[in-house]
Amino acid sequence: MKPKGLLIAVVLLAVLGGLVWWSNKSQADKAKTPADAPVKLLSTPGDQFQEVKIRKVTGEVLGLKLENGKWRMTAPQPLPADQDAAGSMVSALVNLNADKVIEEKATDLKPYGLDVPTLDVQIVRKDGKTDHLLIGDDTLNGSGAYAKLANDAKVVTVGTTTKTSLDKRPDDLRDKRLLTFDSDKLSRVELAAKGPAIEFGKNGQNEWQMVKPRPLRADGSAVDVLVTKLKDAKMDLSETDANKKFAAAAKVATVTATDAGGTQTIDVRRDKDKNVFAKSSAVDGIYKINADLADALEKSVDDFRNKKLFDFGFSDPSKVEVQGKGYTKAGDKWTANGKTMDNSTVQNLIDKLRDLAATKFAEKGGGEPIVVASVVSNSGKRTEKVSISRQGTQYFAQRDGEPSIYELDAKIVEDLQKAAADVKEAAPEQTKKK
């Protein structure tokens, strides 16, 4: 081999050997440096949490404890907790991983803000064991915060969301509901607002009915909206002078709700600036609340009455009769006097009966009946009959066995009459060719 070629080969061999050495060293260094590898900090399942205590750098202490399956605040004072907020805090601690390791054996915690931690978190498990987590300063790039276990010298970082999930104020964790009744077990609601007092109760089909000022069919959807507004009424803790303003405000309504656990009452008032305040028997104190509750309470009896003439709703009727012509459902077909009827025309008639609704309630009706209709539904358990009469240009309707008089729009009656006249037999089936 020529000397020049030999020299080139030696140089290439040296470079190749250097590259191999550098590669091996780099891999070894990576194996020794777990800085970017996720590190398990806490491995306690969520269902094993019994108590969480958080001491802030300011000295403020927040405490949560699980009692009878529900979280309750223990510090800074005993209060019912917002279950969603408490659950979110616990979730931040369940199976918590560090983003990366900063220092394996830290001897000086001050650079990380861990000598006097921003958050000192203690977790008590159901088996009595404890976990102790310290969270310090934010990282320089703001993407996380320094953290460590109290009994471990390793300093790591955790995500910003972990820190913000734990760094809460007492007001963030307390239950802000003014009424705590169970909507599913609510049996009675009493509303004293404008006009006569109104009372709602559940009937045998678990449907809302008006009990006072007299027995009347209630609009279940309207009552449900009222119940939802009551359930969603929450404290506005930013108002510091609620007591004084409540005392000077005008009364809007008083509502009493009764469930299996007892009765709760709320008194709602509105001041001259349209601010709304409330006092509830379920919690101590007087609070500012959202104005939409006051709007929902300023209702009259007619606002809660059921204006629909039929209650069958979207359940399938099994029998319909209009002006003496009856239609019975057999399987998926409608029949009349042994003849198969056109399903679409019968369905159109049913839709018109379902849509019958009053424009308002009348003190008295009059005139001769022009339409009598009945519907059997709910597997034969519900039978409803309605009679419609006309006096001049006005139309009135009454349900069988009820004193209420419903005033109807002329067009809705005309549409019903047309639908009844349009019901026809089904077209004969075409004979299949052989």
Would you kindly provide a written description of the structure presented here, covering whatever features stand out?
With 434 residues, the protein is α+β, with helices and mostly antiparallel strands. It has three domains: 39-173, Immunoglobulin-like; 183-304, no CATH class; 319-422, no CATH class. 24% of the residues lie in helices and 35% in strands. A nine-stranded antiparallel β-sheet has the order 5-4-3-2-8-9-10-11-7. A nine-stranded antiparallel β-sheet has the order 23-22-21-20-25-26-27-28-24, covered by helices on one side. A hairpin with a 5-residue loop joins strand 18 and strand 19. Helix 2 packs across helix 3 (160-166) and helix 8 packs antiparallel against helix 9 (410-422). The longest helix is centred in the first third of the chain and has 30 residues, at 3-32. The radius of gyration is 36 Å and the shape is elongated. The termini are far apart. The model is unreliable at 9-13 and 18-35 (pLDDT under 50).
Draw up the topology in text:
Elements: H1 3-32, E1 39-40, E2 49-56, E3 61-67, E4 70-75, E5 79-80, H2 83-93, E6 97-98, E7 100-103, E8 119-125, E9 130-138, E10 144-149, E11 155-159, H3 160-166, H4 170-173, E12 188-192, E13 198-202, E14 208-212, E15 216-217, H5 220-231, H6 242-248, E16 250-259, E17 262-270, E18 276-280, E19 286-289, H7 292-297, E20 319-322, E21 325-330, E22 333-336, E23 339-340, H8 343-355, E24 360-362, E25 368-377, E26 382-391, E27 394-399, E28 405-408, H9 410-422
Antiparallel strand pairs: 1-6, 2-3, 2-8, 3-4, 4-5, 7-11, 8-9, 9-10, 10-11, 12-13, 12-16, 13-14, 14-15, 16-17, 17-18, 18-19, 20-21, 20-25, 21-22, 22-23, 24-28, 25-26, 26-27, 27-28
